[in-house]
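Record passed on underneath.
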Amino acid sequence: MKTQSPLETEPGTQAGQAAQAEPRQRPSVLDQAGGIKGIVYSALPALTFVIANNFSGRLKVSITAAFAVAVAIGVVRLVRKESVQPAISGVFGVALAGGVVWFTGSAKDYFLIGIWGSLAGAILFLASVLVRWPLAGLIWNGATGKGHIWRADKRSRLYYDIATLVMAALFGARFAVKQYFYETDQIGSLGIAKIALGFPLLALGFLVFAWAARRSNKRLTAIGLLPAKSA
C-alpha cells in the first residue's frame, strides 16, 4: 500500500496550503434555520398557543403553555448539545408576545408584533431602494466580505434593486394576510399564516438574493471590478 508523503499534507507545503485555502461552503438558509427540525421547533410555541386558546379559552393558560413549550425546546437542544440561540430567541419572542396579550387581554394580539414587524420590513426594504442603497446588496455583500464595490456598477445595483423589491413585496404580502386575519378575529388562521408565511417566504427571498449576487458578480468580473475567482 502506498503511504502518503508528509509533504502532501503538511500545512507548509503547496498541497497543504491549497487544502487550507479551499473555502468552506456557506450554510444554506435551511441550515441556518436549524434544518427541518429547527423550523418545526420555531412553529411549535405559536401552534401551542392557538390550540390551548381554542380548548381552554383562557389567556393565562395559553400563554403559559406556549412559554413552557419554548423553554422545553431550549432544554432539549441543550441536552442534545445543539445550538441554543434559536431556542433563546424563541423564548424571548414568546415572552414578548405573551406580555402584549397579557396587557391587552386579547388572544389575537399574540401575533401583533409579527404583523407590524412585517410592515416595518416592507417599508425598510422599499425605502432602501428609494435611497439607492438596496438592502439585498448591503446584506449579501456585507456577509460575503465584498464591501460596496457592487454600487459602482449601475446594472449590479439594478439586480439588487430587484431582489430588494421582491423582499419588500414578500413582507408586504405577509403583513396584508396577517392583518386581514387579525381584523376578522381569525386566531387559528393567524397561527397557520405565521407558519406558512415564515420560512417559505424567507427561503424564496434567499433564492432571489442569490440570483442577484450571481448576476452581479458575473457582471463585475466582466468589467474588471472583481477578479475571476470572486464571481
